[in-house]
Amino acid sequence: MSTTTLPEVDTRPEGTESTDDDTPDVFHYVQKSRITESAVLGNMVVALCGETFPVTKSPKPGSPVCPQCKEIFQGLPKGGDGDS
Q1: CB contact at 8 A, 72 and 49
Q2: Where is region (Disordered) located (predicted)?
C-alpha cells in the first residue's frame, strides 16, 4: 500500500460544461488541511473565491488556476507551513 500527498491547490470546474476527459476548466485554492478530509470523506471545501465543492481531482503542473483565487492568494501575507 502506498500513500500520496495531495497538492495545496485543488479542483472545481467552472460552469456546468464537461469535457470528454472530465478535466475541470480551472482549479481553485483551498485550505491545505481540508483537502485530504474532503477527498476521503466527501466533505465540502470552500475555495478562496468562495466556491464550495468536494475535492475530486488533483491539478497537474501547468493546470489553469481560478483567476479570483490566484488574485486573493497573491494578496495574502507570506506564511510558513503551519495551518492557523
Answers
A1: yes
A2: 1-24
